[in-house]
Amino acid sequence: MLRGPTPLRCYGDNSNHSYYIFLESRFMGFQFPNLTTFLSLMPHDKMPQLLNSMPPSHLGDFLRRPDIVDSDAELCVLFNSYTQTLEFLEKESLPAEVRRPTLPCVWPMALSSSKRSEVNAWFDRSLNNYYEFLTKTLISPDTTDNATCLAFQKVISVLGDYNYTAVDFVRGDVFTSIRSYLHSATVPRCYNSSDPELNSTAWFADYIGSFAPSLTLTDLQAFGSQQVLQVFTVNLENIALFNHSVFQLNFTSYYVELVYLQESNFNPILLPPVFRCAAPGAAFTQLSEELSVIVLRNLTDICTDLDPQISSALAGNFGDNLDATNIASLGNEASSLTMDQIHSIRVEVLLASLSVLSTVLGWNEGQARAIIQAIMLSGQMQINSSSTLIMLGSLVMGCPTTAFTSINASELIISGQNSAFLVNLMTAPQIVQQVFVTQIVSVNSNSEAIIENVPDAMATEIPPVQLLGLSGKDSVIKKLNKKKWKKQQVELFFSVIAVETSTAMLGGANNLSSSVLQGFTCTGVRSVRTVQIKKLIKACRRKGKRKVKLVETQLTCMYNYIKGDSDATSFALYPPDVLLYYDYSLVPQASCRSYFEELADADFTVFSSDLSYKRTALFDNARSCLGITTTSLTKDNIKVLGNMCCSVDGSYIENSDPSILEILKTCPDLTDAQASAAQSLLLSGKTPYGETSTWDLQTLQDLGMIPLYMTSTFYDQFDKKTKRNFLKYFRKILKSNGVSRGKRRTMKKQIRKSIKKKTKRSIESECTSGTITHVTISRETFPFDYDDVTQFNCCLSAATVKGNLEALTEKVDDEEFLAIVLLRLHEAYGDNATIPEDQVQMLGPASRVATVSHISRWSITEVDTLYALMDSSDGVWNTSLAKAVISNYLSNAGNALGSAELNTIGGANLCALDVDVLKNISPQSLKEANALDVSTCSTEKKEELFTIALQAFTTTTRSTAVPLTTYQLISAYLGGTTRAYIQTLVTSNVSMDVPTFTTLNESIVTSLTVSDVQGLLGSNVADLKSYENQTVGYHRHHDHQPYHSHHRLKQRVNLIITNVLSSYNLIITNVLSSYNLIITNVLSSNNLIFTNVLSSYNLIITNVLSSYNLLFTNVLSSYNLLFTNVLSSYSLLFTNILSRNNLLFTNIVSSYNLIISNILSSYNLLFTNILSSYNTIFTNILSSYNLIFTNILSSYNLIITNILSSYNLIISNILSSNISNILILSHILIISNIIILIHHCARNHQHHYDFCYHHSPRLPPPSRRWLLPLLPPGALHRFSAPCGVRSLH
């Protein structure tokens, strides 16, 4: 009936009649149709009419029927056609099983609503009972991205306080939808300043709401441009979202930056507490003193690294009338007080606040000095004991040296036992630390008492001369090993601590501290067993912070000790730096890769300019080993080469695998060519750092130290904001790595240049960049925003410089800017006024741009001031300016060049003084000072300093030899030594290193003989060839008269070789002459012997032959033993020397081989003829004694053959050895032949050996000593005492 030809004909056309009531009347008590059937009964074209005929109450009755909804899809059909859905959902309550499928049907309707009233109706009333059925699909971007702005606001509001425990999504899923919805490249979505519905700046509150904690910087930047987003940042509703959440630092910084771009004077109190940490310091200057106290307390608790600019602003808000309460409120931020504020604090307040002030970290020297000076001048507190020193806490860095000289030294020993005091003292200027230690030393000058009294961390300040005479006691050795030392100190006691008995106390050489091992020298180990020396060398193989810092002379010395060992090619056993000096020809080709892999960790900057050619040779050898034939290094090549990549030229860097950048990031320095190549490689975009268009702050940070060397072209790729933020970050890196001011200055110039390219040079005569104040200077990147010197000049006042000098000179590096600072300082005190001492102490690098006229107006009366001015970290002094500074100091009564002054001035600046001034240095002052580098002094000044040093370090002993420690102490001054003193060193076994040798005056060097040089250099003589291109007396160019004849050491080496050859010729001549005499005497003596034997002494001959056989047996036995030992002992030496000098001797050997061959040929023929003749004579004469004489001649032939064989071997050794060994072997040869003569002579003089001995050819004293053990048994007692035994001994 209901589906007949005329459907619903009984319903009629009255749409006001409820379709549900109609069906209910037709079905009466029968089963009511389910939803699908219910809808199927409706003609399709009349479905909307029929559905909307039902009021919400009727539809509710229908849907509340049990199991009525059989299809979720049909339910959505129903609601899509029903126009009273809003009212229905609000008024009708449905069972959960119906509400669940209902929500997906009506949710899109709610999201598409655009009128605020309709949106409110949907989300505030109609859907209240349906939110629990939300699903991940319904809140996903696919669903919500098409929502209207007003509807999306409501969704965020609803889900902000939603209970997520029973649903299949979490808050993060909601934020994903928010991020997707709000993403916009330019204008933020749902914001239109001209639309009343969409012009609210509470944009973050409306569209992000309580999901704000999920925001990241990337998200924020994706929502719109900086220019538009900054409009929202100052809205207090938005700000409130961030009050109780933690955000990433970069997000916080960016948000706050936008705030102050929008409103530069925005009150930081309105920001969330953690956001205040990123606010500009200038914003806090508007706060009252009361608010400043509150904010400061909060910030010190919240901010992990409070911006100094904020501290300065808040401290400045306290004004110039600070009391103890104010100082207590400032706490650690008291270090942000200006000098004017500190000077204004009453002494009573300072004393009352000492418990606070003494705990402040971050004082600069000027601040601490001002506080201490005020306390000391008041007389209200005496700094005269250990307790008062300890009480000063961090302020101790401001104590002048006079404070320590006036305290009983025993009190200083007590204070030195307090660890907190030591930590604070280590922040004081080095001159203060030196005086502190000097005072302790004065208590007891015994070296072992000194190392007991001086704190371990301050042992570096012990005068080297005070470290002599240390014993090898267990307690002493362990104490020495715990302390921190300088290289020149350890060298003086290394021979004590390096021996096996000492290292055994520590558990072996490997347990020696790196601080001790840095004192290894050839001089120091000359009396240490070779086995132990090799252990010490291996102990130096350390990496990282424990790496032993060794210099070239130490490394070459080490190599000379290990090069002959079988394990010398076990490269992993030795410090990588030692491998730098290996003779590569001794590296097996099969092991060359492992050699370079170990060498990868070496420090290639250790090469001196004299041996820099070795660095080039190493790379050439590496190329050969690794098969590198082009300038393109592979990733594997770079891995093997390691630190060697720090020394390759630019072509390799530019053409190699980009991984080379990772090596360059860690290089201690880069040349301009290397930096340029690295820059080109980066700009190519073919590195892991990508195209330049993608570069950002993270790129700069990831490049390590490379940005330090880049040019403005590189920095052009970054905007000014990125460069500012990078400088803020990089400044701390540079400081922690101890990068010089010069390098920092160069980098900042390049950055400034890149900024100037994009801005016109200022021609303003007034300040437009902002007046420079204490708060401005406190900015970590200052003076970055004053990229033009004109603006810096216009914006900096004399008053600001006067009150903030130290802060300015600590931040400013550019010479032009420093010149302005110095100019303003002099303006502050007037044209002719003297600059006070406390200001002079804070000049820093500004002092280097001064003139002599400026310096004449500086007050320099204290050694503390002299030290501050001479600080090498502020730059190198011009000679005339250094002289002016030192002369200014010395012009004050009582000031002299004492040990403290010498340490302060240093060698280079000392050379600026006139000789007459240097003559006033006392030997005691020089003795107690550190070794000074006076290599830049003129010859006259060097000679004067050496004269003083000789008096200072010479000790009175019976021996004519120079003690080892004396040599070590005086070696720094040998550039001015005398010929006589060098001669005493020649016989003192000092093992002078070659660099020291090259500093000697040229006239002295050219006067030395070969043996002099050998005696002087000792084990270092093998290094002589390596330094053949070094200039002797190089620093002669500082003489008053020009010096144009700079001889190179190569000439000296050639001279030495010439002397070797001359001596060699003389020796050969003498050997041959002696040999001729020996042969003549042998033949003459034998003729006489044979005649006598044949005439009547058959029995004697028998006895003589018996004795003779025994004698020759003993002689040959002794000779063979001696010769074997000599050859064994010198074999290693010859090998080592030849490895160094082989090239030089090749030509000599080739020439003299021919001569010796001819001589030997002639003498072999002579001996053959002689023997042939005498064989015939003996055969005729001894016809009756044939058997006996046949044996005699057989023995004689054997002896002669052995002599000739020995002679040939000796000559061969002469050709391959150095001069000292030639002399030794020559003596041996002469001795062996003279023994024959003595024996023949003795037979004719009734065994009077003394007569024969003294009539033998003249022997040098050493040969006489060697002769004695070779004489036959019984010979010794036959020598008369006066001329025999005494002379032999």
Descriptive report:
This is Mesothelin-like protein. Its main location: membrane. The chain crosses the membrane at residues 1088-1112, 1119-1138, 1144-1166, 1178-1199, 1219-1238. It is found in: Membrane. Belongs to the mesothelin family. 58% of the residues lie in helices and 0% in strands. The model is unreliable at 1034-1049, 1126-1152, 1210-1232 and 1245-1289 (pLDDT under 50). The longest helix has 84 residues, at 1098-1181. The chain is mainly alpha-helical. The radius of gyration is 48 Å and the shape is elongated. Helix 8 packs parallel to helix 10 (149-160), helix 54 packs parallel to helix 56 (899-910) and helix 61 (979-986) packs across helix 64 (1010-1017). The relative contact order is 0.03. The chain contains 71 helices and no strands. The termini are far apart.
Query: How big a fraction of the residues is strand?
Result: under 5%
DSSP summary: helix tally: 71
Shape verdict: elongated
- Helicity range of the residues? 55-70%
- Decide which structural class fits the backbone: mainly alpha
Kindly state the number of beta strands: 0
Mean pLDDT, rounded to whole units?
83
Low-pLDDT residue intervals, each spanning 5 or more residues: 1034-1049, 1126-1152, 1210-1232, 1245-1289
So what's the oligomer here?
single chain
Biggest sheet descriptor: none
Question: Rg, please?
Answer: 48 Å
The separation of the N and C termini measures: 152 Å
Pfam families: Mesothelin
Subcellular location: Membrane
Protein name: Mesothelin-like protein
Keywords: Cell adhesion, Glycoprotein, Membrane, Signal, Transmembrane, Transmembrane helix
